[in-house]
Specification:
This protein is mainly alpha-helical and 186 residues long. 62% of the residues lie in helices and 0% in strands. The chain has a single domain, classed as Hypothetical protein af1432, CATH 1.10.3210. The longest helix is centred in the N-terminal third of the chain and has 21 residues.
């Protein structure tokens, strides 16, 4: 299993451009964290790339990502990655036991939220986003209202990180793939 194999799976099951961009964002952030922490960059990247691969075919809490797991197993995705993907969705009840799983949970919602913060800036650039801006928008319940602030808070607590530092890390991870995800600015 390599990145090309993971992309093939994502492309087969995910048609939405915004969902693909989200997958690329989470992949980039996961790779950034893996490089920083000396973890397996390829495995962490695949977890990020594939975490929502089944969302279009299994969009309900009862299905996603639980019903996608057998597809990944059948395609040879390693168990550690599959468990991290299951763990990123609290409703599955799968414990996040590894650093990969905890990090995936801690970057998924926050990276999507941070993307929204970047897109409302005049520059449309992640390079202009600061943790202070993200924290301010988190307090505004009407901004990106579907994003779970509770999951973001719980994820940072599980990871045992300072919120401001973690937000900056996610921003830095997103900056590493800004061109690819369309957040380099106009």
């Amino acid at each position: 299993m390599n990145r090309d194999d993971a992309w093939t799976i994502l492309a087969e099951f995910t048609r939405s451009g915004s969902l693909r961009r989200h997958a690329l964002t989470v992949e980039g952030v996961m790779r950034w964290f893996a490089r920083r922490d000396g973890a397996d960059v390829e495995a962490w990247g695949m977890a990020g790339l594939l975490h929502d691969f089944d969302y279009e075919i299994h969009p309900t809490l009862a299905e996603h990502p639980k019903d996608g797991e057998p597809i990944l197993a059948g395609r040879g995705v390693p168990e550690e990655i599959r468990k991290a993907i299951l763990g990123h969705a609290p409703h599955t009840g799968v414990a996040r036991e590894t650093a990969m799983a905890k990090t995936l949970f801690a970057v998924d919602e926050l990276s999507g939220f941070t993307c929204a913060v970047a897109l409302v800036r005049p520059s449309k650039s992640i390079h202009d986003v600061k943790p202070k801006s993200v924290k301010k928008k988190l307090k505004d319940k009407s901004f990106a209202a579907k994003v779970s602030r509770e999951e973001i808070t719980k994820a940072m607590e599980e990871l045992g990180v300072d919120p401001t530092a973690h937000i900056q890390d996610v921003i830095d991870g997103m900056r590493s793939v800004a061109d690819e995800i369309g957040l380099a600015g106009e």
